[in-house]
Amino acid sequence: MSTELPAPTILVIDDDTEVRYSLNRVLSSQRYRVQEAPSGEEGVAAVKKQAPDVVLLDNRMTGMTGLETLQHIRAANPRQLVIFMTAYGTAQTAIEAMKYGAYDYVVKPFDPPKLLALVESALRTQADSKSASSYQPVVNSDEHKEGIVGTSPAMQEVFKAIGQFAASDASVMITGESGTGKELVARAIHRHSHRAAKAFVAVNCAAIPENLIESELFGHERGSFTGATAQRLGKFEVCDGGTIFLDEIGDMTPTTQTKILRVLQEGEIQRVGGSETIKVNVRVVAATNKNLEALVKEKKFREDLYYRLNVVRVKLPPLRARVEDIPQIVDFFLQGLFKAKKTKVRKVSPEALALLCRYRWTGNVRELENVVYRSAVAATGDAILPRDLPDEVRSAGEKEDESAGRAATTSDTPVSAPVSIEELAAQLVAAVAAAHPGAERETLAALLGDRLPSATKPAPRKRAQKE
Hints:
The chain is of the alpha/beta class. It contains 18 helices and 16 strands.
């Protein structure tokens, strides 16, 4: 025998008797259990005695105000869902209500369907919060000091490559889409190399103006150009004995490419405006999200430099190719945000995690990190729920569900097996003969003539013999 779940309890806190009566009627019509409190003090006491599923709280009341009541309720039960009610939809009221942890707010007079929809939304959120209560961390952030998380086969290959190549001094080329974590891999290679005690310097070649990149990389002498008021060491000198990471190498100008090639071949640089040759011992790790092979064919990237940089290659997979790693990555980001005291969120509901796994991450891990941070900031409790996710992530999941529904409907429709022309003709003849026995069969055969397969042609009628 199935037992029905108890109806959700809604607590209405309002000092206006008519408002409480109206809300009671609207909510009771949907079979909600309604409790009433005529003041903020009594409302707080009711929440402490037995927490309702949702609280509808008026703003302007005699005695304790709505905002004060909200703060006391949230202090007594941080997970309590409170819908704030106000007759004055000012920006200040909305900001204050949301700041103190209200689930949402509505403006009087109420539109019953919209109010009921908001209550339903709050109840779904409560269910999601309960499902998130069983959440357990899936990674130990202390074991991922590299910042690279994943157990998928694709990432295991990346980890193996880092271990194999880190000990050598060979130049490394890291390829992959934007946001896949190329700099993290470069830092891991440096950290596990014999150069770990020396400097690691990262340079974004695409972010430095063309007229400044040589000065940035190789330094300059005083007076070498307008604004050069003092001698400056370049990145290669700064990381002598260490590792330099040249990100977005495909955006480097031909002139700079030539000078980088000289560093790799001769192990020496020359400051802008200087004549002295300076020896440097630097390991170069380069990265790009462009197709360098195509650039070489188009004569936009030096072929000799390409082969100098591409001694060892590490290819990073896009996030959509390792969806199984998303729960671990999300957990890693949440732990980092909590330790840095940027949010109080430490969990994610199964429903929200499912949406994150189904979204197509064009911005890869960098985009996922941004979404986790945004959602954690938006969360009113200690868990990220579906309502906290950006619209584009939620809508992508809804569209996928709709597509799956349409596909299921189509697959459930019986499809007739293909039949031959002969079979169709035979079915036609049989149908006509059944409906109109007699001369119609011969008439049909005569009309179709040779186009009717012989197997289906009616046999000629025998003439009746005269007695």
